[in-house]
Amino acid sequence: MLYAVIYRKKRTATEDELRAIRRRFIVWTPPPGLEIKTHYAFVDFGGVIIVNALDNAALRMGLQPFLGPLEFEIEPLVSIAEALAISLDADEAADPVPREAS
Fold it and tell me: HEC profile for the chain?
């Protein structure tokens, strides 16, 4: 399943903790079941990573080394085509188009 993982530093994070996180990330490799699709950094600090996770445990294992000075927001993702199809189906179910009388 695809997830957007948004991360930011906690207000209480120290420069030493953030430096340690950067060093840890440089040598980190994703655990089995977690694939990084893309990773972008925000200009001020933090970023967003799009990951494909086999299950929630793989996602947790991947984030575990970075808990502490960082906070995470995790959102499951579907493609825009899937989202539109679901929305159109829901719209149709809520307001069906009347059929012509025979």
Answer: CEEEEEEEECCCCCHHHHHHHHHHHHHCCCCCCEEEEEEEECCCCCEEEEEEECCHHHHHHHHHHHECCEEEEEEECCCHHHHHHHHHHHHHHHCCCCCCCC
